[in-house]
């Protein structure tokens, strides 16, 4: 698959695009930005979970809770495309600063409303909408900024780190919101204001965090021999920022088309699977806290999948990884829709999140390398399509189950996943074979390494056992010195006599009863 390279990479003697200018590299500025973003997302997830619970507790109305939930989810569906255009047009650092400043103000106002007003549900809905919108702009700007902070060889690890951070915030943020809400109704939004303040101060203090110009160059000015980048040219045509060029790039890229098609179908039917398992859990009388714990397994699975994605992508490549993940999805989806137990079904769905996170990292890493100058718009379009499939699946799941029944829904889901896997194998058959060969070679290498170490440990143990055995035999055959002492007529001690070699019989040790501490060894 062809990777589009920037002019900086094509020029002779010019470092690759995204290569860090300092020695910190991917462990420097990127680590700072990633840590600040992780703290911000933790607060955002906590208020997203606490808002509906607080609205339900204050009004006893599921409609109010649903409105707060919809307000927190709607920005992900409505504003990703807009955020992509804005991120490609405006300085990304300014976009991040503005989004965090708005979040701080919104969380602070919400705290005051909760303290002063008797019915702050309207402000909860407004705060959820504002917080979700700011999170969309910040996340899009951060994803688009990764190639500016990280060298191309480290993109997979960096994007995998971002994906792991997102899943960790989902896994920890939702329980944190419930805990903070149990302490005090104001605590989730107070913590949200503090977690938004941390990245705001970080970006405010480190003014050159997202500027990678070489020493002596003005920020945004192209290097000699490098064509002007669309982001840095003040006189560029406004049509360059339209969505049509980005859509055309996505349409021409076969890997992006394949991943988006798989993600749309997977996200849609995963929501149906979740609803199916919740219905089964309700029928079997499974406690709600058990269902909540099982649903949180998706965040843990996504975290594990993102952590190992860089290593697997280095072995198999993005295309083979996509097909292998789809192949592994088939038995997991089959088990998740087998109606045996909702515990097993939700656990299988959580394992599917491991593979989904790996596909997300593969897509983002590919797009960061192929479309570095249009990454904001590409990310916005991609997120809009994937989040839209999630929302559509959540809305349509009940209708599908009601129309064809639980058993019919399971058959439909299994058939679609099997068909998608067959199509992907046909499209990327050569890549899959190469990936399987690489995985087999790595498996044999690890197996041989493990066998070598196991053999070395076994030989060491045998040698140690042999030495111990020889030592025991030597002790067994060593002559024993008698400790008997005879008092001579002159009153002195006679020399100790050495007994015959011991052949296993009883040994008599003669010792005078009047020998004191000195004679017993103090001498």
Automatic annotation (TrEMBL):
Its main location: membrane. It comes from the Bacteria. It is a multi-pass membrane protein. Residues 223-237 have a biased composition (Basic and acidic residues). It is found in: Cell membrane. This is MFS transporter. The chain crosses the membrane at residues 30-57, 63-83, 186-205, 258-280, 286-307, 319-337, 343-363, 384-401, 407-429, 436-462. Keywords: Cell membrane, Membrane, Transmembrane, Transmembrane helix. Residues 1-23, 215-237 are annotated as: Disordered. The keyword Membrane applies. The lineage of its organism: Bacteria, Bacillati, Actinomycetota, Actinomycetes, Streptosporangiales.
